[in-house]
Design a protein that fits this description.
Strand content: under 5%
Mean pLDDT: 90
Low-confidence stretches: 459-467, 516-525
Number of helices: 22
Structural class: mainly alpha
Length: about 525
């Protein structure tokens, strides 16, 4: 019973942080609002056609769609779903550790000490569910290695299918799990076993061909979000930063645990007399090594700027692998399990205050901005939202009388329409109509409200290739808007985001009017 105290404490600690997050997270930021909008399109044909704009496959969309049908699509309901995903992650970690005859102290300490797992894993996106499926898939492939039965093969296939159809980065990890199990079987010259084991991830990955038509169509605009300068070292550094936030101590402890676990696993595999036990140790060593390599290759080929959420399934898979390696080894030694448990609890408790602060940070202030504008902006006013992607969350919450538009104007604000943006990037004067409307609004005695930054433009960087990144275009558009409004009106900030708003979507509000001092509003924040 004493062996369970530490993991039980860590589980309760993580669930308390998850509950705090669910209560304090607030509204949906643009990535969540976009994923929700795609999942709740009128028909499944619409969902299938539009899913590349948010890049979450149909299993995730089906879960969100089903939850909304049962519990509604309000912010509170969706935050409750995020909390349940955190509960599912705890259950999955306990289940794998129990089957490995150990306790999930390392993986639970990891999820407590790495707030990115909490914040982005509980969001209305597929990464939290992807973590759950990856832990279960790792267990299923280990069982398939030990017991190559039809039932074990179907269980591995089912977990792999759920993973790859929930979050696309899981494809590399599923491939790593299958390759690890097949490699161990091949070392024993169990060739048919190795082929059958590889069959499960091959079938799962082949099932993604169902998305080939829509993904092929997305290639026409996908270059807008790809980072042509991305290097492998950029991905490695992003992974390290994710581990190091908020504590370098936690990162060093995690890396030390990983290296120790790999050394322990290699030595035990070489000394183990029982063949099946040696196979388990080899599999548990190969999984983190191949997973790290596979994730690096996947993100390099993908070409997107690496964000913390891309690493969540990998982090949780690594944590559960360390549990299976280091936890089992320590449990066989006197006081070894107790020492590991004390170390994990110490790391988790040391990072808990910072994790609790991060759990309270809202990803957006869009609800407050929208309600403030609805109360103050009149029917003759004009609201401009820039950059354009702020319009996704703004559209979810704004119900005011004033007309609003993004900069540049797009025909659809429900989710990330990079295809429409690319059309604007290719135009000679994409802001001409907006600037005329803004001028007419000011001339008529009304106000122009700007949601987002309003730089004082002195020079405008020339955009690059229209097929390249949208960043230089957004900078130029922001400067052009700032120059036009500041040159024809008095502009000042009338609403600033609180310090508990994430920099990903902390939107200031500006009011511009010709009569001098524009009437502002105080944000409820």
């Amino acid at each position: 019973m004493r062996a369970l105290l530490a993991p039980l404490l860590l589980s309760l600690l993580f669930l308390a942080l998850a509950a705090l997050r669910a209560l304090q997270a607030g509204g949906l930021w643009r990535d969540e609002a976009g994923a929700f909008a795609v999942a709740t399109l009128p028909t499944w044909r619409d969902v299938y056609a539009q899913f590349p704009h948010e890049a979450f496959p149909l299993a995730f969309m089906a879960i969100v769609r089903g939850w909304v049908a049962l519990c509604g699509g309000g912010d509170g309901s969706l935050r409750a779903l995020g909390f349940l995903v955190c509960v599912g992650l705890i259950v999955a970690l306990w289940w794998r550790a129990w089957r490995a005859r150990t306790t999930p102290v390392v993986s639970l300490a990891l999820v407590v000490a790495t707030p990115s797992i909490l914040v982005y894993g509980s969001s209305v996106r597929g990464y939290g569910l992807g973590c759950v499926w990856m832990v279960l898939a790792a267990l299923a492939f280990e069982r398939l290695l030990a017991f190559p039965t039809r039932g074990a093969w179907l269980a591995a296939l089912g977990a792999a299918l759920l993973a790859v159809h929930t979050v696309l980065p899981a494809t590399a990890l599923v491939a790593a799990l299958g390759a690890a199990a097949a490699a161990v079987a091949a070392l024993r010259r169990r060739w048919w076993h190795a082929v059958a084991t590889l069959g499960a991830p091959i079938v799962a990955l082949s099932s993604l061909l169902v998305y080939a038509p829509t993904l092929a169509a997305a290639r026409s605009w996908n270059a807008v979000v790809r980072d042509r300068s991305l290097r492998a070292m950029d991905i490695v550094l992003a992974f390290v930063r994710t581990l190091a936030h908020p504590s370098t101590m936690a990162m060093l402890a995690g890396l030390a645990a990983m290296m120790t676990a790999l050394v322990v696993g290699v030595r035990r595999a070489g000394r183990e007399e029982d063949a099946s036990a040696a196979d388990r140790w080899r599999y548990r060593v190969l999984v983190p090594v191949l997973a790290l390599a596979g994730q690096l290759v996947f993100l390099r080929v993908l070409g997107y700027a690496p964000e913390p959420w891309y690493f969540l399934p990998l982090l949780v898979l690594l944590g559960s692998s360390v549990d299976a390696l280091l936890g089992t080894w320590c449990g066989e030694r006197r006081h070894g399990a107790a020492a590991l448990a004390v170390a994990c609890v110490a790391v988790a408790l040391a990072t808990t205050p910072t994790a609790a602060r991060i759990a309270r940070v809202r990803m957006t202030n869009a609800p407050e901005v929208a309600s403030g504008l609805a109360a103050r902006a009149t029917a003759g006013d004009l609201v401009l939202v820039e950059p354009w992607y702020y319009g996704i969350s703004f559209a979810r919450y704004y119900r005011g009388m004033a007309r609003w538009e993004t900069v540049p104007a797009l025909a659809d604000h429900r989710f990330h329409r990079y295809d429409l943006l690319l059309e604007r990037m290719r135009e000679r004067a994409p802001l001409a109509a907006l600037l005329r409307d803004a001028g007419a609004t000011l001339a008529g005695g009304h106000r122009v409200w700007v949601v987002g930054p309003l730089p004082d433009a002195r020079t405008a960087a020339e955009p690059g290739d229209p097929g390249g990144s949208d960043v230089p275009f957004e900078l130029r558009w922001a400067r052009a808007l700032g120059s036009a409004l500041r040159g024809n009106a008095s502009c000042r900030v009338v609403g600033a985001p609180s310090r508990l708003t994430s920099p990903y979507e902390a939107m200031p509000v500006w009011a511009c009017a010709r009569e001098g001092e524009a009437l502002g509003f105080s944000s409820p924040e």
